[in-house]
Amino acid sequence: MKTFSFLALFLGFGITLSAQTRAITDTGQEVVLYSNGTYAYVNEEDAAAVDIPTSPKTFTKTENASFLLKSKKVNVGFWLDPKLWSFGESKENPDAEYEVVLKGEDLYGVIITEKIEVPLETLKNVAIENARQIAPDIKVKEQEYRMVNGEKVLYLRLDGTMDGMKISYSGYFYSNSTGTVQFITFTSQNLVEEYREVSQQLINGLVKLS
Q: Do 85 and 101 form a contact (C-beta atoms < 8 A)?
């Protein structure tokens, strides 16, 4: 599968955090309005922040992650293993700062950075709302708060169908006073378990920079 064809499917993922249109129904429920005329309830299927568990584990970068890719927008970096990953500035996704690809494989990633600070507890709904615009049947498969290199992040795995393809993406959502980061990997659902370890190693390279 060519990198371009798979990445192109995700052009809509990085919709900016402020791009959503919201409205209140006549019954007082908040909904998100999409450009295709559909809508979704903000709180439908979404557990409250207090229902998201916190992992008892701590997560750190691997020893082989020897290259530090620095964001130009926020004070966050991403430790990568250059022997495993190809990476560079985003060309396929206009909302992403960087793209990464597992060499010779079908695991891809994007790093989306914005200067808007968003409460960590809000990022789950933001992620789901954005994902539904490209995969309307999106479901939360895994969720938890984690401590990653000393910073609290939200981990999500979301599965859905887009253009007939069953896709899965997982990653970290993080925010501080300099902005917000979405560090996401994605592949087809049948490859999730095969790539789980290397995907987790990649996203565990997220670090706050001084």
A: yes
Which has the higher per-residue pLDDT, 50 or 112? 112
DSSP 164: T
Q: Specify the pTM.
A: 0.80
Position 43 confidence tier, pLDDT thresholds 50, 70, 90: low
What tokens does 171 get? 């990653």
- Which of 206, 179, 44, 185 has its CA nearest to residue 125? 44
Evaluate whether 154 touches 171 at the Cβ level (below 8 Å).
no
The Cα–Cα gap between 118 and 176 comes to 8
Would you put residue 179 in left (φ > 0), alpha (ψ -120 to 50) or beta?
Answer: left
Cβ–Cβ under 8 Å, residues 169 and 199: no
- Specify whether the CB–CB gap between 147 and 154 falls below 8 A: no
pLDDT (mean) for 148-161: 96
CA 12 – CA 181 distance, rounded (Å): 16
Q: Quick one: pLDDT at residue 106?
A: 95
AA identity, residue 130: N
